[in-house]
Amino acid sequence: MGCGGAKRRQPARLMEMLFKPQALSRAIEAIVAAGGSEAAEARLVADNLVTANLLGHDSHGVGMIPRYIDAVLEGGLLPNQHPTATLDSGALLALDGRKGYGQAIGREAMQMAIQRAKRSGSCSATARAPPPSGPGSAAPIIAPSALQA
Questions:
Q1: Which domains does the chain have, with CATH numbers?
Q2: Rounded to two decimals, what is the model's pTM?
C-alpha cells in the first residue's frame, strides 16, 4: 500500500561552486566596501574571510558576509573603527573594539601589543567586543617576526 517514495528519492545534492581565491576576495572586498569600509579595511576583511575558507574554517569564511551585512545595517558592526584603550599600564593593555570588524581591530590590537612588548619586555592585551573575525588569531604569524625586528 505504501508508495515507497523514500526508497526512490535521490540523495540530496549540494550545489557546489568553485571560485579562484583572488576573484572571490575581490568580490567580497567590494561588498565590504559597499558597507562603508575604507579600501584597506575592505581588503583585510575579504582576504581574511577567503583565507578562512581555504584553511577549512568555513564557519568563519565568506559565509559570514550575510551576517556582516545585517550587522552593519542594524548598527552592531561599524566600519572603519579603531581600538581604544580602556586600561593602559604599560605591559597590560585592555582595548575596546568599538563594534569594528574583528579583523581590523585584532590587527591593530596586535600592533599595539607588540609596541608595548618592545618597550616593556612583555605585554598582555585583550580586545573587547569585536564581531567574529575569522580563523583564530594572527598573533602567531605577526608577533614573532615583529618582536625580532
A1: 21-74 (1.10.1530.10), 84-148 (no CATH)
A2: 0.80
